[in-house]
Amino acid sequence: MNLEFIYNRALNRTAISMVEAMYILGLPDKQLGELFLYANKLRQHYFADNVHLCGILNAKSGECSEDCCYCAQSVHHKTNIFSYGMLTVAEILENAKMAKENGVRCFSLVTSGRGIVEDSDFEIILEAISSGESQITAASLGILSSLQLLALRKAGLCKYHHNLESAESFFSSICTTHTFAERIETIFNAKKAGLEICSGGIIGLGESLEQRVELAFTLKALEVNSIPLNFLHPIPGTKIFDNYQPLRVEDILKTIAMFRFVLPNTILGVIGGRERLLADRQADIFCAGANCIMLGNYLTTAGNSIDADKELIRRAGLKTS
Q: What per-residue confidence (pLDDT) applies to 268?
């Protein structure tokens, strides 16, 4: 087994095996340059030199009933984040407008909680999406019903974001208030409603290498349209904080490459944790196969400045699309 053989299989859209995916994760660090060579060629083949820019708005923050071990917005944790109710339509649209002006291609409305329960909150979301001034193309609103997802599509939404977070075999270790099956059902219902799917997860929750591969192959089977990879940077007060084992930069980059080889023609973003964990090696994500980043801030933590990220892309010899 060697990287050139695996590369040619991925290039020709011949699915690589889980054994081959594990081979990538297990490569010695000295082969990182060779891995970059082939992962970068895959990215260029399917996406040329284009980097997709996405952005989010935390439209409703905190007070989430779920007990996800990593989440700063959970009522099960004491993180002292700023909690607030649903923003107004005007506030949402103003943020969407600013994102478009900064070149964001996919702007997503995000709310905390298991799902949208209050009719008044859902009406605000629908009004914002259907507004003639709206630049909102995606939404991440938790576990929704088929009727809610269909209403979002009719309002003009294009994509639904719903992370699996981790492999099914590990999910019960990170959340007990809802199941992996419920997340899968939401994705199926969103697809039935005619929405594209953005789904990924968080790497570094304590999962094994095999479970990282399991997540990649689950997303492949679901035929998602884009994958956001987050790398855990734990928030003090969350359940996972005290037992956190920092990820090595090399392992982060091998993981990105593994996802690129498993899903060669799928948009692959590196989102949360990029700035803090990779620091001055952030540009290496593109060599590892990523073709998407998030501009601006995250849900409860700050990202790079927009100018810094645009300069990062320019220095990598790439361009925004």
A: 98
